[in-house]
From TrEMBL:
Residues the record lists as binding acetyl-CoA: V82, G83, V84, R90, R91, G92, L93, L94, R95, S118, E119
InterPro entries hit by this protein: Acetyltransf_17, Acetyltransferase_Eis, Acyl_CoA_acyltransferase, Eis_dom, GNAT_dom, NAcTrfase_Eis, SCP2_sterol-bd_dom_sf
GO biological process entries: aminoglycoside antibiotic catabolic process
Designated name of the protein: N-acetyltransferase domain-containing protein
Domain named N-acetyltransferase: residues: 3-149
Natural source organism: Streptomyces silvensis
Family according to the record: Belongs to the acetyltransferase Eis family.
Location of the active site: Y123, F412
Length: 412
């Protein structure tokens, strides 16, 4: 590898970002989207790889706060904007940037790093495990009805201008964050991502629309969506594309989904990113006509195993010794005793005192299980977790679970 790695300087951002765009195919983003990423880039934690004055590699990280099981917000590195020029691929540049980045994350005292992967095969070697899934629904609204709970008819819905409704939507979102692992507490500036609506990316759909749900004059939910009109010889068959729906109670949530499913001249509601346990699945009359599909979403890497496992709670009492393998971050290797319950946890090294291990696994499996969305028992069934003490797997698998499935509400 001939390239030199160094921290990004703001003056280099254009060239750096153009390298990233080209790694993703070379289609330039809309100016407003580019500007947003320019504003959100944290140069002091972004890396450029340079070969003879030319940028050939990029990697960045955002300073996130992510909800973990139990509701705590954990300072987390949101790894992003990774690209290597095709002229320099497969020479170890990604590996070198991952090395530097994870060392930096550790120095900053962040116990966890997260990312979404362009391809699932890339990041396991660096200790990232698939920790959450997203649900895609395509509801045939000509056939599917919604069985709404009492109180739904009392929720008042009204259209609002998305940009003007932003603060009210953000307030609802902020109240939802602690209830679901994987959700991000949005720092100032990130609300712009939610209402970003470049005309060139609408693919024939309307500009973004917003409907607020209100009770007693208070905003208790919102839906952001677009409508793509379509007609054929038999009449209208438009699609409602759901971008975001959040609500503070079941009646408001049902009112918003009923609204989305009832818009005249449309016959499909398409939502690409919902939690896998989204209550809407229990509202619909015919789940088969919702064409549910799930796919990998958030990847988690424990950078400091002890601190990360202590930061969350456990839904049942657990006392296990984990033998952790971590070739890329060897400071995590060894035996850790985790004692936890719904109130809190401690996780300490026990290498010195000869305590035998109950479960053996790599840091990648711990990352998968961390947010409660991937059972340790499932990983064990694939041979990726080994039970060394009978009963330890069932105990740990139950404890690591979460009442709400983890979910990443938007990309980054
Ligand atoms: C968080 C994010 O931003 S995800 C976005 C990632 N970026 C992209 O997908 C853009 C297009 N692709 C690229 O820019 C590059 O091909 C990258 C960044 C994926 C890889 O960069 P490279 O410098 O070629 O990777 P590097 O040479 O360091 O490879 C390290 C290891 O990853 C493997 N690897 C690299 N890319 C891939 C891939 N796409 N699929 C599977 N394995 C991969 C290599 O084979 C190598 O394996 P090894 O550990 O067994 O030796």
């Amino acid at each position: 590898m001939t390239a030199e790695l160094r921290q990004l300087d703001q003056s280099e951002w254009e060239q750096w970002y153009a390298t990233l765009e080209r790694a993703f195919g070379g289609v330039a983003e809309a100016p407003e989207e580019r500007q947003l990423w320019d504003d959100l880039t944290e140069c002091e934690r972004s890396i450029g790889a340079w070969d003879d004055g030319v940028c050939v590699g990029t990697a960045g990280a955002f300073s996130f706060r992510v909800t973990v099981p139990g509701g705590a917000l954990l300072d987390t590195a949101g790894v992003t904007m990774v690209g290597v020029a095709a002229t320099h691929r497969r020479r170890g540049l990604l590996r070198a940037m991952m090395r530097r980045q994870l060392d930096d994350v550790r120095e900053r005292g962040e116990a966890v790093a997260v990312l979404t992967a362009s391809e699932p095969a890339i990041y396991g070697r660096f200790g990232y495990g698939t920790a959450s899934y997203s649900l895609r629904l395509e509801i045939d609204t000509t056939r599917v009805r919604l069985a709404v709970p009492p109180g739904t008819d009392e929720v008042r819905l009204r259209y609002a201008v998305p940009a003007e409704a932003g603060p009210a939507c953000e307030a609802v979102y902020a109240r939802r964050v602690a209830g679901r692992p994987g959700m991000l507490a949005r720092r100032p500036g990130w609300e712009r991502l939610i209402t970003l609506d470049p005309p060139g990316e609408r693919n024939g759909a309307s500009p973004q629309q917003c409907v607020l749900a209100e009770r007693d004059g208070e905003v208790v939910g919102y839906a952001l969506f677009a409508v793509k009109p379509e007609w054929d010889a038999r009449g209208p068959k438009g699609t409602v594309r759901v971008q975001d729906v959040e609500a503070l109670d079941p009646a408001a949530y049902a009112a918003l989904w009923r609204f989305l499913c009832d818009i005249d001249l449309t016959s499909t509601v398409l939502a690409l990113n919902r939690p896998v346990d989204d209550p809407v699945v229990q509202l619909v009359s015919d789940v088969r006509r919702c064409d549910l599909r799930s796919r990998d979403s958030l990847y988690v890497r424990l950078v400091d195993v002890g601190a990360a496992l202590e930061a969350r709670t456990y839904q049942a009492p657990v006392d296990v010794v984990l033998d952790v393998e971590d070739a890329f971050c060897p400071w995590n290797e060894g035996r850790w005793r985790l004692v936890g319950d719904p109130k809190g946890a401690s996780c300490k090294r026990v290498d010195a005192d000869g305590t035998p291990a109950d479960l053996a696994l790599s840091v990648r499996e711990l990352g998968s299980a961390y947010l409660g969305g991937v059972p340790l028992a499932q990983l064990a069934g694939a041979g990726r977790v080994r039970e060394l003490r009978q009963g330890a797997l069932a105990e740990a698998s139950l404890a690591f679970g979460s009442a709400s499935a983890p979910w990443l509400p938007h990309g980054f």
